[in-house]
Amino acid sequence: MEKYYSSRQVSERTGLSIHTLRYYEQIGLIDGIARDDNGYRQYSESDIVWFQVLNYFRTIGMSIREMQEYASFNNSEEVPTLTARREFIESYRRKVVEQMAELERSLDRIDEKIGFFKNLENSNKRQPDN
């Protein structure tokens, strides 16, 4: 018999708030959540693992829309799931690399501006006060 966990227990194990657990269910990131006789959610071990995957995606900056796209591979029969997931993660990696390059360009521009202000400060220090 499979063991089930309450929302509070899942929240404690995953670090996600109870509100987030419910929100993920509401937007379709997780489905098939069992209910007990009183209507309380009962999460399985596989639900917990999936929440941990979603939490990992949050930590790497993945948007909800991207998580939903990834989750859709569970229902896809067109492409083997492993291949689709690998290709998705490769695509996400390219996006992150592009973001890093843009951040590097921004940092270079910021450094240029800092240099500009330092030069102005140095020229003001060299001019005698009248």
TrEMBL record:
Gene3D superfamilies (alphabetical): 1.10.1660.10
GO molecular function: DNA binding; DNA-binding transcription factor activity
Domain HTH merR-type: 4-73
Keywords recorded for this protein, A-Z: DNA-binding
InterPro entries given in the database record: DNA-bd_dom_put_sf, MerR-type_HTH_dom, MerR_fam
Record-linked Pfam families: MerR_1
Protein name: DNA-binding transcriptional regulator, MerR family
